[in-house]
Write a structure and sequence with these properties.
It is a single chain. This protein is an alpha/beta fold. It has 7 domains: about 35 residues, no CATH class; about 280 residues, no CATH class; about 240 residues, no CATH class; about 230 residues, 3-Layer(aba) Sandwich (Rossmann fold), CATH 3.40.50.300; about 130 residues, no CATH class; about 250 residues, P-loop containing nucleotide triphosphate hydrolases (Rossmann fold), CATH 3.40.50.300; about 60 residues, no CATH class. About 35% of the residues lie in helices and about 10% in strands. The chain is built from 51 helices and 44 strands. The strands form 14 sheets. The chain has a 7-stranded antiparallel sheet. It has a 7-stranded parallel sheet with strand order 13-16-12-17-18-11-20. Strands 25-26-24-27-28-23-29 form a 7-stranded parallel sheet. Strand 42 and strand 43 form a beta hairpin. Helix 8 packs across helix 12.
Length: about 1600
């Protein structure tokens, strides 16, 4: 992407590129912001390897020594001092009370003996640091002021990697920076360590161990190596941030295995060096003070590295080299511990390492522990990890250009600088006291940042990895996101721009066609099946220079144009038409002016071409999070939010707080009238005179707890209702709405706002309200699946409403202005299309630089005034641009180039000048476009506001307004103007707090949140923010506002009162016991749940089928897999479902199959879709469709067919669902497939009680769990459930079936095949003892009544046919035929017509009137009077009879109709009612007036006949005319031929004369003697004249005859 400002080069040379200077290569090539020229390289990093003794060893400095090198242009380092001064890393000898000593290796708590729980020393900075050189303004590539120092160090560290393998000075700097980076920002330290585990950095370690260590022979050399290189390396690889990081686990193993080496050779070399060096210091050979403390420190560090190396490979525990090293290190440890002034912690830590290693090696099970030395015990305090605050509050300054302390300044989508930044984002925890902003602003800030990290953060990381792939980063090439799927399209290029009146800028982007098929139809099928680039999908344009543009797919994108055009046209561009390229229309995701300008700069780029790709994020919809984040930003600007003191007080008050009543209910004498709920008994509730809930329960359909919850909700402004499964949460909410609507007018409530998280839940709520008689309901949003609510959609309602005159006038004016601006913007785009052409450049030069124009024009003038004509003028500009010398000298400034002769410039200067011209042409067009674009944007927003005025009126007049949380954020500006005082939110426990906050409109005075914090939590994508993750518990983004207010995460936070519904009417008591014992001790069973029938076909209604079949290992071992499958459970579940539905007693959706994993659901659907009719929820269907899409390439010539519908069968539909999408649903019988079964006892996210609760509380009559109980035995709630089932005998490795007709039989199954063996037809193996309806015994095995009623008896039918006594020819199970088909031979029957029939079948013999007579007779058809021959039984008098005779009726043209009578005539009651003969197709046959021929064309009515097309009949003795009759003849060329005079004619006066062959018409001919008209026919001779010889004789001697 180009710079947003014209390219104006400043001071040169630029800063040298460290990569290019050191290696001669740079991955960024021409787009690198550093200089690659020789001048810059001369100032760059040079290798200077001083002697080993020249290392800085200042004893007072903690900084590692470095060798002298050329100064870095951006930073100067401390120069080395005189050789010979050696410094060792030391611990503070002050003892345990010293702060530095405590923090040096910082034991976290007394008694912690984990040998790997180690903290690293504090980073000690250089006491005499040199200041960084200021970045001058003249440097065109100055460092971004927002970048931290750690990022600079990381870049420098990466630059030194290749040199460090061969250069001692670089290697010292390499380890110095590494120890500094590992203590820096977490993201940077992780980046550093991942690079350390790659081949180039490992080569540095290889050089150190295999070359530098053997060469160090003196104690002084060894001391230098230890201080400068070995100890920093060991400190880095044992740093707590490194060894405890799950992110770096693989890199840690890589480095430790590398240090171990093949056969342990590298480890032996390293530890030989360390042990010899420690031994030398212990013997006092090294003149170093306090060498004993150094020995203990080195020993402890070496043992720590050795223990980690031991754990890095399981085969190391049998490696004798470890035992040998331990045998040599242990005496050194004992010797150092005996010396005075030792650090107690170091010795204790070292002995922990030693003990751990010995236990692992099996050397000894125990080791004497030295007596602990007494030390003062400090006060116990909580360790709080300091947070690096956002933006300017950060100690290192903003991380990037999108890092701000105020969220309203943050761009929703990541910026390029943010994408490239490796520092971790600031994420607030769930502790309000740690917010950098107090109160509600801090709460909004927290929810915004966490929600953005959960959604946009993953996109940011994926784009960063894609950018690294473009630079051929090997690690990025193997990267695959676990949460965000992507499709990448290469060679993306913007080829056309258009501007839409309402949508804005539309980019037509071309990329390489991914569908490899020969024909466009197959490519279209591929695109449709893959469901890629769907309208509204989010994509990102990525350039290799780091720039990005986020877009959404436009509705204008076509799969195929359908016209088959071979020439390209932007209007006809499609995804599938071209075999080489695909075309997609994109709209800017955030169409602010800056992004629009970026798109324009990309479309007309200036400078070297860049590589770009298009990355698609399938399934990611921008509106799902964009509107909520924008709403939080708006609320942060003006926090007009109700209940601030309850949801986010500035000062927390621990304990239960009082919630005041709704503001509208505090009016004097205001009471709620509850008569709408009662049986006619008048009941009222007020703040001064509260109603007894028991009284309401007695006179309404509400139970005691529902009544109490309703009364409490009317008494508090912010009311919370917790509803366990099946307790009627939705029912209570509907009754609350009913009460509020009955008091709406008195309280002036306005419309009641009903908010749900999902469209399905919202549809259910509104349909129930309609069932209760609620009127004037409006639903906002277009994703409703309910046909019943289609007429209540806001769009439908507002379209039927009339606008005011003022609104219409305003809209007309706004549309007119919009059209004017759109026209202007289109003109700018047209100018932009051609602004960089050669003609545009020449026109610019002619107007602004005439001298340059003359030098580059086709025709010029020399110094003497003579005209110069250049040959090949079209190549002159190219010759100049690509000519010139290539030099290492810095190019001149642009101001100097503007006065320089063109042909004396270097090649680089010519390119700079040419780019300057291009910017001067293009940038004014873009600037003008920007000004008009901002005006258009303002007009569009005003148009939207005016257009929504009618929406506002409709909403204001509504009684209930329903909307989802996402829709509410999208329509926040509109809803803020609606006078809603009451908000009711269902399933509030599943709603993210960010969504709940946006629902709190400023006008809300009464909010009612209904949910269950013990059921499903809000769904998030990033597990690092999940409360179930130990690392994510501090953030807990998945904790809803409802849960936080009911059960605060910290003891010092306030709690709000809430009501709990305690009577469930869903589950049988045996099922409800599972959640009552574990989660809801006060849950009661109500209604008729105890009277539920047993599950038909099963011995028990509740059972856990326990198995040990492992889950599919292929998916379990795949680190990128986010789902799991258990094939055994799939087969067992399908078999159980078939058994249940064969009972014939369960209707549609009475049986539900629930599983926690989408992969298992996909396999269940594939397995069951041909056996039963499958019912899926909308969310599950969308997720399955995305999972089931084939991402592979389409084979050539193969068409992809759309998936067929599920097979319909005798069996009823079965509901399939994941547990996360089944909350709020229920079924009579529920089958649960737990999936997870492994030796590691990993049960995944089913370890949380919330999901277990939902899983176990969906069934009404019966529930069957299929899973490995051993895998789930480590989870507390599962353990309780298993104990309950075991105590009741409801768990086992065999599932017991029961035959409803033979209840005494025992049918035990443990495999899917056992169902076929023991209950093949839903019963048992005994014969069916029930009689068939025909009276025969049933020949099948025992089966259900449904199958029994459908059984067919195969015995011969014993019943005689009625009327004749013949035997029935069918089987008993089929119905007897009503007509006997036995043929009666030798029979003669006289028919009513008088004819005799000689044969008939039996039933016709019984009914002679049914026999048809086939004797042919002659009949006259009434009406048309035609005579026809027909069979005797045919009734020609009927109006239905079709007469087959020829019509022959006269036509207006004179011809007779040749059509069939039945086609021409419609007969009715013996007469012709209508005629329709159609067009006559007979030949015309009219004679021509000018020849003897007749017209042979088809009949053309009154129209004139065409010219005669018959051959001309004129001939003479010499030749024949070859033309058509109506064409003029050519005369015979023979002189003596009589025909040369023409044809003979006579006039009215009988004068004889000829007319020569010419084009004259006969009608124009006149007698040459008297002038009378010709009396003859064209080409016919006069009657008095013969032909042939007679004609020649008659014409001889008539030479003077006038013709």
């Amino acid at each position: 992407m180009e710079n947003k400002r014209p390219f104006l080069p400043t001071k040169l040379p630029k800063e040298p590129c460290p990569r290019w200077a050191s290696t001669g290569e740079c991955i960024y090539g021409d787009v690198c912001k550093y200089s690659h020229d020789a001048v810059a390289a001369a100032l760059g990093f040079r290798d200077q390897q001083p002697p080993l003794a020249q290392v800085n060893t200042n004893a007072s400095s903690r900084q590692h020594p470095t060798a002298q090198r050329a100064p870095n242009p951006r930073e100067t380092r401390q120069q080395p001092s005189a050789p010979g001064d050696t410094t060792f890393l030391r611990r503070n000898p002050a003892g345990p009370s010293s702060a530095k000593s405590q923090n040096w290796r910082g034991q976290s708590s007394p008694g912690n003996h984990n040998p790997h729980n180690r903290q690293q020393p504090e980073t000690r900075s250089n006491p005499n640091p040199q200041p960084r050189q200021p970045l001058t303004q003249g440097n065109a590539n100055s460092r971004n002021p927002h970048e931290s120092r750690n990022q600079d160090d990381l870049r420098e560290w990466k630059r030194t990697i290749r040199q460090a393998a061969s250069n001692r000075t670089a290697r010292i700097r390499f380890f110095e920076l590494a120890i500094k980076l590992v203590d820096g920002e977490v993201g940077i330290s992780q980046d550093m360590f991942k690079t350390l585990a790659k081949e180039d950095a490992l080569q540095v370690i290889r050089t150190l161990v295999q070359q530098a260590l053997p060469q160090a022979t003196s104690v002084q050399d060894k001391a230098t190596l230890w201080v400068a290189e070995i100890e920093p390396l060991l400190r880095v690889i044992t740093h707590q941030r490194v060894v405890d990081s799950a992110v770096l686990e693989q890199e840690v193993f890589t480095i430790y295995n590398f240090l171990h080496g093949i056969g342990g050779q590298r480890m032996k070399t390293l530890y030989d060096f360390i042990i010899e060096f420690i031994g030398s210091m212990s013997a006092g050979k090294a003149p170093v003070p306090q060498a004993n403390l150094c020995c203990l420190s080195m020993t402890e560090l070496s043992l720590g590295v050795l223990s980690k190396m031991l754990d890095s490979n399981s085969t190391n525990i049998v490696n004798q080299d470890f035992s040998a090293i331990i045998g040599r290190l242990e005496p050194l440890l004992n010797d150092a511990a005996q010396r005075p002034n030792q650090g107690l912690y170091l010795e204790s830590q070292a002995r922990q390492w030693l003990r751990y290693i010995k236990l692992r090696l099996g050397v000894g099970d125990s080791l004497p522990v030295s007596a602990p030395r007494s030390q003062s015990a400090g006060p116990l305090t909580h360790f709080v990890l300091p947070k690096n605050l956002p933006g300017h509050l950060s100690s290192n300054g903003p991380r990037h250009d999108n890092d701000h302390a105020d969220i309203e300044k943050i761009s929703i989508l990541p910026t390029p600088d943010e994408i490239l930044c490796v520092s971790d984002e600031y994420l607030p925890t769930n502790q309000p006291t740690s917010f950098h902003r107090p109160g509600i602003i801090g709460r909004l800030d927290r929810e915004f940042r966490l929600l953005r990290e959960d959604t946009v953060g993953q996109l940011r990381d994926v784009v960063r990895k894609q950018l690294e792939k473009m630079h051929n980063n090997p690690q990025a090439l193997q990267f695959r996101s676990q949460h965000v799927r992507t499709f990448t399209y290469h060679e993306a290029e913007a080829i056309h721009l258009t501007f839409h009146r309402t949508r804005g800028l539309d980019l037509l982007v071309r990329f390489v066609q991914p569908a490899r098929a020969n024909d466009s139809s197959s490519r279209e099928d591929w695109w449709m099946h893959s469901k890629r680039l769907q309208p509204g999908g989010l994509v990102c344009i990525i350039c290799n220079d780091g720039s990005t543009i986020f877009c959404v797919v436009s509705d204008a994108t076509k799969y195929r144009s359908g016209n088959g055009a071979t020439t390209f046209s932007p209007k006809k561009a499609s995804l599938a038409d071209s075999p080489d390229y695909a075309y997609v229309h994109l709209l800017l995701a955030d169409p602010k002016p800056s992004n629009t300008l970026d798109a324009l700069h990309w479309y007309q780029s200036i400078g070297p071409s860049q590589e770009r790709c298009l990355v698609e994020f399938p399934g990611v919809l921008l509106p799902s999070f964009q509107h909520t984040l924008e709403a939080l930003q708006q609320m942060s600007k003006a926090p007009k939010i109700p209940f601030i003191d309850l949801i986010a007080p500035d000062q927390q008050l621990a304990g239960l707080v009082d919630v005041p009543p709704p503001h509208y209910a505090t009016k004097p004498d205001f009471v709620f009238d509850l008569s709408s709920l009662t049986d006619g008994t008048p009941l009222q509730h007020g703040s001064d005179e509260p109603l007894d809930p028991e009284l309401l329960s007695q006179h309404s359909t509400l139970d005691a707890t529902q009544s109490a919850a309703l009364v409490a909700s009317l008494s508090m402004g912010l009311a919370l209702i917790q509803g366990p499964p099946g307790t009627g949460k939705s029912y209570t909410g509907e009754k609350l709405i009913q009460v509020l609507l009955s008091n709406k007018k008195r309280a002036k409530l306005g419309p009641i706002l009903c908010v749900c998280y999902t469209n399905h839940a919202l549809d259910q709520l509104l349909e129930h309200l309609l069932d209760e008689g609620v009127e004037q309901v409006i639903r906002i949003g277009s994703r409703s699946k309910s046909e019943r609510l289609s007429g209540f959609n806001l769009r439908t309602v507002s379209n039927n409403a009339e606008r005011t005159r003022s609104e219409n006038q305003s809209l007309r004016g706004l549309y007119s202005e919009l059209d004017s601006h759109v026209g202007t913007l289109h003109e700018y785009l047209d100018q932009l299309d051609t602004c960089l052409s050669r003609d545009a450049i020449k026109s610019y030069l002619a107007d602004n630089h005439p001298r340059y124009h003359t030098e580059l024009s086709d025709v010029g003038v020399d110094d003497q005034g003579f005209q110069i004509v250049h040959h090949r003028p079209q190549e002159r500009m190219e010759q100049w641009l690509h000519g010139g010398i290539v030099t290492d000298l810095a190019p001149r400034d642009i101001s100097e180039l503007l006065d320089t002769d063109l042909w004396t410039m270097t090649r680089e200067e010519r390119q700079i000048l040419y780019y300057y011209w291009a910017h001067e042409i293009r940038d004014p067009i873009i600037d003008a476009f920007r000004e008009d674009y901002e005006s258009w944007e303002s007009l569009r927003d005003e148009r939207d506001r005016v257009a929504r005025e009618v929406d506002l009126r409709c909403l204001t007049e509504a009684h209930v307004v329903g909307i989802t949380t996402t829709g509410l954020a999208k329509n926040l500006d509109l809803l803020r103007r609606v006078p809603c005082k009451v908000l009711l939110c269902e399933e509030a426990g599943e709603v993210l707090e960010a969504h709940s906050l946006t629902a709190l409109l400023p006008s809300i005075q009464h909010a009612i949140l209904i949910g269950d914090n013990l059921q499903l939590k809000p769904q998030i994508q990033n597990f690092e923010l999940n409360s179930a993750n130990p690392r994510g518990a501090q953030y807990s983004l998945d904790v809803s506002m409802f849960e936080r207010l009911v059960s605060p995460p910290h003891d010092d936070e306030q709690t709000l009162p809430y009501s709990t519904l305690q009577t469930q009417r869903r589950m049988h008591p045996s099922i409800s016991e599972l959640v009552r014992t574990t989660l809801y001790p006060n849950l009661e069973d109500g209604g008729h749940v105890v009277d539920y029938p047993e599950v038909c076909g099963m011995k028990k209604r509740l059972f856990w089928f326990n198995h040990t079949a492992p889950e599919d290992r292929a998916l379990q071992l795949d680190p990128t897999s986010t789902s799991h499958v258990n094939s055994f459970e799939v087969e067992m579940t399908v078999a159980l479902v078939q058994h249940l539905v064969r009972q014939g007693v369960y209707g549609p959706d009475d049986i539900a199959v629930i599983t926690p994993y989408l992969g298992q659901l996909l396999n269940l659907r594939r397995r069951m879709k041909h056996l039963v009719e499958i019912s899926l929820g909308d969310q599950d269907k969308e997720e399955l469709d995305s999972l089931d899409v084939d991402d592979g390439e389409l084979p050539s010539g193969i068409n992809v067919k759309p998936p067929t519908a599920s097979k319909q069968s005798l069996l009823k539909s079965v509901r399939l669902a994941t547990v996360d999408n089944f909350q709020g649903e229920e079924a009579k019988v529920v089958i649960i497939s737990l999936v997870r079964s492994n030796e590691e006892k990993r049960c995944g996210f089913l370890s949380t009680s919330n999901r277990i609760n939902v899983l176990l509380s969906r069934a009404k009559h019966g529930m069957y769990i299929i899973g490995n109980s051993e895998t789930y035995g480590n989870v507390r709630m599962w353990t309780q459930v298993i104990d309950i089932l075991r105590n009741k005998g409801n768990i086992g490795n065999q599932l017991e079936l029961e035959c409803p007709r033979h209840p005494g039989s025992s049918l035990l199954v443990s495999e899917a095949d056992h169902f076929l063996q023991h209950s093949p037809e839903g019963g048992c193996n005994l014969p069916c003892d029930e009689r068939l309806p025909c009276g025969h015994a049933c020949m099948y095995r025992c089966h259900s009544d449904m199958l029994h009623n459908a059984a067919k008896c195969l015995d011969p039918c014993p019943r005689p046919l009625k009327g004749c006594g013949h035997a029935c020819p069918k089987i008993c199970g089929d119905a007897c035929p009503s007509n006997c088909q036995v043929k009666m031979e030798g029979l003669e029957l006289k028919l009513r017509c008088g004819h005799v029939a000689t044969g008939a079948v039996c039933w016709k013999r019984q009914h002679p009137e049914s026999i048809e007579c086939h004797v042919m007779v002659q009949r006259t058809v009434p009406g048309c009077k035609h005579t026809v021959m027909e069979a005797c039984h045919v009734n020609v008098d009927s109006s239905m009879y079709r007469c087959p005779a020829i019509c022959l009726a006269p036509q207006p043209c004179g011809h007779a109709c040749t059509g069939q009578c039945c086609r021409c005539n419609t007969r009715l009651e013996g007469r012709v009612a209508s005629q329709r003969h159609g067009v006559c197709t007979e030949p015309c046959n009219r004679r021509y007036a000018k020849c003897r021929h007749s017209c042979q064309e088809k009949c053309h009515g009154e129209s004139s006949c065409p010219p005669c097309s018959a051959p001309c009949e004129v001939r003479c003795s010499h030749s024949v005319c070859s033309k058509k009759c109506h064409e003029p003849c050519e005369p015979c060329a023979e002189q003596k031929c009589a025909s040369r005079f023409g044809h003979w004619y006579s006039c009215a006066n009988n004068h004889l004369f000829t007319l020569g062959e010419s084009s004259m018409q006969i009608e124009e001919a006149k007698c040459p003697q008297c002038g009378a008209a010709v009396d003859g026919v064209a080409h016919e001779p006069a009657k008095a004249v013969g032909d042939g010889d007679e004609l020649e004789e008659a014409t001889q001697g008539i030479a003077d005859l006038e013709v």
